[in-house]
Each structure stands twice: as C-alpha cells, then as structure tokens.
Amino acid sequence: MKVESIDSDLINKYIGGKGLAAHYAYKEIRGGVDPLSPENKLFIFNGILTGIYPGFTRYVVASKSPATGIWCDAYSGGRFGQELARTGFMGIIIEGKAPTPSMIRIDGESMTIEGSGILDGKNAYERCATLKPLSAMVIGPAGRKMVKFACIMNDMDGPGRAGVIGRGGLGAVMGSKNLDAVAIRGRLRDRDLIRQEVSKDVSATYLKAIKYLRDYVVKGIDLGGNLPAVEMSAGAKVLPVNNFMAGVVEGWERLAVPEIRRNTIKHHTCPLCPLACGVHVKADGEEVDRIEYETVALNGFNCGHTDLRKVVRICRLCNELGLDTMSAGVVASFAMECTEKGIYDFGVRFGDYEGHLRLIKKIAEREGVGDLLAEGSKRASETVKAPELALQVKGLEFPGYDPRGVVGMGLAYATADRGADHLRAWTITAELKDPFTMRGKAELTKYLQDRNAALWTLICCDNIPANTTGNPEEWVDLCLEMLKTVGIEVDKAGFMRTGERIYNLTRLFSVREGISRKDDCLPAKMHDGRPDTKWKIERGDFERLLDAYYELRGWGKDGIPTADKLKELGIP
Amino acid sequence: MAKLLIHGHAVPARLSKEGMEIEPKEGDIEGLLLEAVEEAAELREVLIKDGRLRTDITILVNGRHCMFLEGLKTKVLKGDIVEVLLPMIGG
C-alpha cells in the first residue's frame, strides 16, 4: 500500500468523484486489457463535499467493466462514503491481484491487507455484519464467481440505508482481484472535515440545502425508492412487461405505492440526509431492507410477477448473492422469452416463481445454464443466436422504462457512457425550449449528461435533481455555493464545462476500446412495433437523432470526439 | 375523424383506452389538441400550462414521435391516432 497526493491542478480540472476516477482510469488502465485481469484497476473515490453537506455521503467505484468492456462508474449511498472522507483520503485505487482471498482494512491510522477467511461462506448481509463496527463494501458469492453483473454492496446490515454499486459488474472486478471487502473506520471526526475558518459559511449553506430538500425533494421522494414511478410508468404505458413485450399489465396495482406502503415497516436514510428514501418492506413473511422501482419493474412485471412477496424474495436473494437486481431481472426475462419461444430451454418461463429463484442461484454459482447467463444477456444471446431478445446497450442491460414512445430515453440509453442507463439523462420530465424537435431532444440529452457528470464529480445524490418538485437548476446553483465554502470557485458555465470535459474523457476511454457510432444503438426490439401499442423507433429516425446529438457534442459522424473538441476542453 | 389517446398517471382510464374522436379541423397536432381542450374541459389541466400547450409532453402520431415529423405542425389526417404521454419521474 502506498499513499499518493493529488495535484491541485487536477482538482481544478476534475473536482473529485467521477472526474478524478475518469482521469486516473484513462491514464492508468491500458487500452485492451481484460477487465478481469490483474492489469485492470478499481477506483474508489468520494467527492469534495462528502460528509459535509446533506445529499453528499455517496461514493463512486469506476473501472473497465467486464459486462461491457468499456468505461463504467457506479454510485452508492449508505455510510461508506462518509467513512471514507473520515479517513482523510480522497479515494482508494486498487491494482493487481491478491494471491489468496483478501480484504483491505483501514481502521484509524492502521491500514492492512489481510486474509478474508472470516467472510468465507457468508452472504453480503452477513459479511457486512461480520465487519462491524467498520463500514464495509463487500462482494457476495456472485462476485467471487466473477458473474459479469455482480455488484458491490455496503452497509447491508445497517444502521441506516444500505448502498449498492450495482451496474456494470464491478463486483466481478473485485472478485478477479481476490478482494472480498474494503472495511473502513476513519480517524477524523465530522467536524474535522470542515476547516474552522469557513465553518460559519458552511453552516449557513447547510441550512439552505436542508430547506431545499425539505421544501421540494421530500414531496417528490414520496414513499421512496422511486416507487411512485410504477404508477407513472403504468399510466404512460412504458412499464417493462415480459421482456419488454408490453407497456402495462393487468394487476400492476399490486406492485404500486399503496400496496408497498401497506407493507413498509421502516424507512432508512443515509447519514446527514433528511430524505428517508430507503424502503424496508415485509410482505407475507418475506423481508428486504431496501426496494426500488428498478428492482420491482425488472424482476416483477418484466418476469411475469405481480405479487409483492415474490418480488421481495427475489430482491433479497439477489442482494444476498451480490447480483445487480437490474441486470438480473433483464437476464432472467431474456431466458424466459427464449424458453417460451423454443429458442433455448433455460428451464424457466414468465411467472414461474420457483424457477426464477432457481435460475438466480444457478447464475450466482455459474451452475448449468446459469454459467451462460452469468456472462450477461448480450453474450448469452449471441451464444443461443437470439440477439434480438437481449435488451441491452453495449452489454449493459436496460433500465425499467421502455423507450418506445419516449424516444428521448432511447437516445439517452444509446449514448450513456456506461451502456444502457437512465440516470445520466432523464429526458422525460424536463420542460424544453424546443420540445418537439430533434435538436431540442438532442440538446436536452447532452445538457443532462454534462450536468450530471459535473454533479457526480461532487457525488451528489441523484435522487435530488431527479425527484425534486422544484427547479433542479436551483439545486445545481446551491451546489456551486457549497463548493465555494470549501474553496472551489466555479461558475455555472465552468461547472458545465467540467461535466462536458469528463463526458468526453469517458467517451475517449471507450473509443480506445473500439466504441464508435456502430455501438450507439438500440436492440432490434425497439425498432419493431410493440405488440400492445405498435409504438416503435424507426431506424432512420434514430440515426437522424444521433446525428443531431453528435453535432452538438462536437463529435464526428463516427461518434468520436474531434481533435478540436478535445483541445477546446483541455484534454491532452 | 382522428383519435386522441392520453396516457399518464391520474388521467381517466377512458382517455387512455377508448380516447376521443376529434375532427382535425385545424389540420395539425396543435390544432387538434386545442380543439380537444375546447371539447372536454377536463383536458385543460392535463394539456395546458400558463395558457399554452405544455412543453414537457411526448406526442406520437401513429406510433411515431412528432419530432421526426413536423413537430406541432405535423398534419393530422382522418383515421390518424394521436397519443400524448404525460411526463413522469424516474430513477
């Protein structure tokens, strides 16, 4: 282990979180390395406001993804980010591979790499419990087996809200390094994170942040877990149903807010945050500490289930095994459609609850058909010669919103820097200057991608701009005020430019791996009329939208940033 | 007649299932929607904001997003199906 300092120039250019991770990943991961080889690296960073302001206790993990072979960054709440800030470190970079299963322990002044025998045979919840009182990010059995959509989980055993680094199979990267856990307890107190001379400014800005959250975001969060999206998606007919074959299903109300509220036994929060977004549910004896829209939509409707007890059990099982519930749901629905259509018998059909549970266990253990599915839906679909049934972009499975109809989300999925992702640009809510034109849609996608890349350098909770009932730009302005209190003065244009710089850098990382326009595409199913509504995205229309987007980005028609754009952004 | 369907949370189910039959007098999407508001007062709070058509809705004509056509000026013909999707939160 060695300690490095970060140049102040780098902080000025990339601020923290996503920006620093992108800088180091581009610089230190050689193009073409196997994501599961010792040459790949794992970057764990917090943000410059972490542990100081409400909404800033998250952390990022970034690496070359084994699911996609390109850039991947994923974020998690809970206590770990705050505890990382208390260590006094901005981040941890993990390189190489341990000879035997190991864990990193940072406890006060002590830093060790030690055997992880105490975690053997334990699931993710038990591992976090074993490592208490330290806050730990752990992998489960699926990470050890290097399942391509294994996740990293933290603080699974409370107190407070648990967190999941869900997307892109970063748990498999940890597994490939024989790293079972990173457990930390910082040496600093919360007040040590704030310089004495600015504590009054921080206090004043802190109160403004709390007021914004209470006035606008508490109402938007509602029950939490983005669960109100069930009703809205059903209303707009964009729910994923049976591997995206329909947009709404009879009985969807059984997985909607009133039913989940009736079965909610607790709410959990991250440290410092007044938003109780963690929804702890117990339904007919099945219990899970944290359930969200994506899990419900992709493992419920999308797999033929509308029974809350079943979805809760599926969610808990994925958590225990350390599987991303989003990819797990889409991989399972792919297997179900293949089986029903007689393409390949994965032994499970839509609505087959027991078969679904068996499939999840087989995937985590890479047993039988589970070994094929553990590679993710893209590779599995190529093997069984049914690529049209895999709902993925660049190897990352779809989120739980059907972009047919809401085509702007199709552009967002196709151009998100880590593969199919709905959070880099949630285009469905915004009021547009130019709402009914391609240019307006492309502008919005680019703006949100850049803005969120900037916000994620601070590792701001994405629930805030996504769920506010107020103006999300007011929150961005408040973030700039917060930055000023810690000595970073940047105006809105400069902040947006930082986001654009980062988005271009992550694109360059992936271009180096062979990504270009040919990969910024949607699965064939999106171009076919959906059976229930006939909605579809015409291929020609999508290509025109992509042209408008590339032009705004200053990228060539091949989707590669031009030399002029890179020079303008100060990317060497 | 053209058919208008409106999909969204808290919108009466009949507007999403059966919809409304409207004579496309003005000839384009904007005209059709304003005509629908005239015919059914309940649509005013669904489609109008600050005295004009909302700018955060998605409009499809025969399953195709209107941005690929002529936007609000897209011609609506007899037999066309115009669908409006209301905005939603997500995450």
TrEMBL record, chain B:
Record InterPro entries: Beta-grasp_dom_sf (IPR012675), Mopterin_synth/thiamin_S_b (IPR016155), ThiS/MoaD-like (IPR003749)
Database matches in Gene3D superfamilies: 3.10.20.30
Protein's name in the database: MoaD/ThiS family protein
Source species of the chain: Candidatus Methanomethylicus mesodigestus
